[in-house]
Write the structure tokens for this entry.
Amino acid sequence: MLIFDFYSKLDVLDARLRQFSLTNATCTCCSTGHTDREGKVIHCDRKIIIQCLCQWFGSEAASEANISSTVADSLRDKLSRFPFQYWMFLSFTVPLVWAFMDQLAARIRDEAWEEAGALCFDILSRFFNVLPAVFAFTVTMVHAVQRVRCSRKAPLRWLCRAAVALLHLLPPLGSQLCNTLLENRLQSEALFFALTIIPALAAWRLCGREAKGAKALPQHQQQPRARPRWGTFGRTAPMLLRMQWLLGKAQELKEASPSFVVAGRRVQQRKLLADGGFAYVFAGLDADTGERLAIRRVLLQDKEALAKAKVEIELLSGLCDHPHVVRFQGAEIFQRGAGAEAVYIFELCPNGTLLAHIEAHKDQAKAQGRELLPYCCPCLEEKDILDVLGATAQALAYLTRLGMIHYDVKSENLLLGNDGLWKLGDFGSASEHSFDLEKAEKKALLEAQEFIHGRCTPMYRAPELADVYLRWKIGPKVDIFALGCIIFATMTGQHPFPMESTCGNITASYRLPPEATECYSSVLLGWLRGLLARLPAERPSAVRLAAEVERFKLGEPPAPAPAPATSSARPTKAAPAQTMAAPDASPWQADFATFSPVQDSVNGE
């Protein structure tokens, strides 16, 4: 009954999605007449949401069609897949096993060995074969009936209930038949156990981890098949052991100050500088030369983390000395008991990160009595911003020549070296992979989405990273967009796209405070607009940007901007006008006068 009720509610939800219409959609503010408790007029959330949908899909009709077809199909496919695995059915029977274990202990205590053996076979057949198989076949029949496409399913459901009732009668009848054939209880229970192995194996096969709903999908969309596990302990024990090792090793790293050899160099570990996840950065010293070093120690919790560390070491080994890239001096992977550890050696940049410098300027402004909300503008001076912009652009240009994309450019990964130069660090997310998604199938989109999820910080994601269904090419221009987020923060003390939503990243809509136009040059503001352009083709390359910044710092006039390149990929969603401004962070009030008009198609025809 519960499963039938679940599918009935799923039918209702599916029908509502397929009949979805923006015209009939309302929000809470519509029911209150767009006034708050004090009687003040408030803006309609519905209008804002419709505006965003039009920006994403091109028009109201396109968004309605997408929700009623693609979204509805995807949701129904996910929710209607066969939800159970065999180990789940085993876990259902665990509480009942304990009651029979008490009886078994009593037989053993009385030395009634034949009765104890018969009870063991009874427990095995009842709770490891019969009950899981009955549960599995019951759910399978209900699932199969639900997937039958017909207008009247009531007779099928009653037939299914009758079959389930008959199925529950079969095990007792089989047990009674075995007792009739063999008078010895131990032999009869052993025979019944042998007979029930067959339906148990069939249930195991039936309830593999592959979803039943995936059979109706194309081959590339099906979930990979994996061996089911017996019992929850076999599934969780390795994970618990790894977590125990990780936590113990993490505490050991924080307390100890060891001396060890990495890549042929004897180094001494000193104080902890930073930590995050299972990565720890320490100040260190070369025991032979006295050179100050940064030691990064990463605990590798599984094979995937180990493979990722090996790829990172290979990429870092290909980096030559560059004035704006943190110098890599060697790495090694060590086996540590139940896990592994990767140890990296870099040059030490003791002057802090760019984020720390921005926060220090904000604290200084606060001490001077300046208002910091919503923006602390100006934050850094223009000459300091140009140093950051030029250094990062040169580092990205260097990576581009190597065919590498950083994928995690952010203010925390820019460090000020002893030589006074900003340096790009943390290449844990760097990769040589790019994606051309214009004609990609859904499997490729999902793979790109998974790749992005494990690498890119959400606040710094370019539109093509925040929404892979734009089908735009993912390449070096994603680092350029992240650099634009950094430059915006150096001007205003705030990030252009808050963490609460990816809507701002997808539409590349931000609001620059008017103080910025008074405090910074038009050239710098023009670079900022180019860096945060929504279309990748409209963003400058790192090579051109680095050259322009260098000329500007030398007092030479900036070179004329080249004509924007035309992308071969046709955007699936309309790009918003760059003049569109997002609402202030606090207080929040939408200004609809600044919104670009909604078009009925991507080309505005």
